[in-house]
Every structure is written in C-alpha cells, then in structure tokens.
Amino acid sequence: MAKVDLVKVGKNLLKSSETGKSVELLSLWQDQPVVLFFLRRFGCQVCRWMATEISKLEPDLRANGVALVGVGPEEFGLKEFKEGGFFKGPVYVDEHKKSYKDLGFKRYTALSLVPAALGKKVRDAASKASAEGIQGNFSGDLLQSGGMLIVAKGGEKVLMHFIQDSPGDHLALEDICKALGISANAKAGQMPVCNDDVCTR
C-alpha cells in the first residue's frame, strides 16, 4: 500500500452528479469513514459489475456509519450508469483526474491496454457481468485505471489504498469489511470473464 497524503488528496475537487456542485474530497470523510470506489469508466462493463458487487455492502456500511461513494474520471457514460442502478451511493466526477493521478491510478498506453484487457481477471469479470445481464460501451477514456481508497473518519488514517494492476482487479468484499473492522451479510458474486470485446469497452 503506497503512502497517501490525505491532506494533499483531500483538497482535490470532485463534481457531484446530483447537484453539479464541486466539493473537496476531504469533505467525504470529514464526518464518517468512507469507501471511495474509483471506476475506470462509467461505461465499462467490468466496472459496472464491480459497482454492483461493492453495492451489496451498502446496507452494512450504512448500518456501521460508513459512506459508500463512487468516483469516475469523466462524465461520459454517467447518465447511463446512474439509470442502470449499478451503484448504491452518491457518485462524483473527478473532471481533471487529479485524484486518480495523486492516488497512483495508472494510465495504460494503447499497447499496454490490450494485454491487460485480455488477462484472466478481466475475462472472468466480463463473464460474470454478462451472466448478470450487465452490458458496457466504448464511451470515454479507455486508458484510465481505477482502484479504491478507504479512509477513517476525519481523515485520521488510510485504512486501505488499492490500485488496479489490470482492468479486472478488484478488492474482495471481505477485504473491504476487514479494513473497516466490520462484518457484513453480503455474498460475493462470481466475477465475469473478460475478453477483448468487453474489457476494452
């Protein structure tokens, strides 16, 4: 887990998908612990599946006073993502991708994306998404990776900093709960299989 400067990252602005207003990232952990899920793209089939998986924890997180927040790197696909009900929490956009950069979420090159998108983790995730009827599209920045940041109330400390190594990488639900020191009733779904048709979307 790389060192995260919460003071620096906390100053980054995110745009609310509900109000259109910008807020500082630190406002999201000011009054409660927060699970920040940084999506690669709103239109990504695997990201949508991951969002539905993480959303299974929302009732348990809420019961324990933990916020669940989604962040995307751009607005492409946001409307469809929200209408699809893939995520059970507020969604923000990091229009300048500043938080993505500060948190070390890498950008693929066109050459590095193809092998990453063809990897087993991505194929598995895409297969599970398809099995659950979750589709994707090619809208937006195909080269951005994502991850997760879990922060204690008041920014006291980073509980988890996860950086995707490939588009199919994600944290297990039990690892999220363990980082927060809570238990949950959610059952993880089977990760879909990814192929070049899906993970480059």
Description of the structure:
With 201 residues, the chain is α/β, with parallel strands linked by helices. It has nine helices and seven strands. The chain has helices at residues 6-10, 45-55, 58-63, 78-83, 98-102, 110-117, 120-131, 173-180, 196-199; strands spanning 13-16, 22-24, 34-38, 67-72, 91-93, 147-151, 158-163. The protein has a seven-stranded mixed beta sheet. Strand 1 (13-16) and strand 2 (22-24) form a beta hairpin. Helix 2 (45-55) packs across helix 7. The longest helix is centred in the middle third of the chain and has 12 residues, at 120-131. It is globular and about 35 Å long. It starts with 5 loop residues before the first helix and ends with a helix. The mean pLDDT is 83.
The stretches of 5 or more residues where confidence is low (pLDDT under 50) are none
Beta-strand proportion:
15-25%
Helix fraction? 25-40%
What Rg, in angstroms, do the CA atoms define? 15 Å
The gross shape turns out to be globular
End-to-end span in angstroms?
28 Å
What kind of sheet is the major sheet? 7 strands, mixed
Residue-averaged pLDDT, rounded?
A: 83
Number of strands: 7
Strand order of the largest sheet: 2-1-5-4-3-6-7
Helix/strand-derived category reads alpha/beta
What sequence of helices (H) and strands (E) makes up the elements? HEEEHHEHEHHHEEHH
The number of helical segments is 9
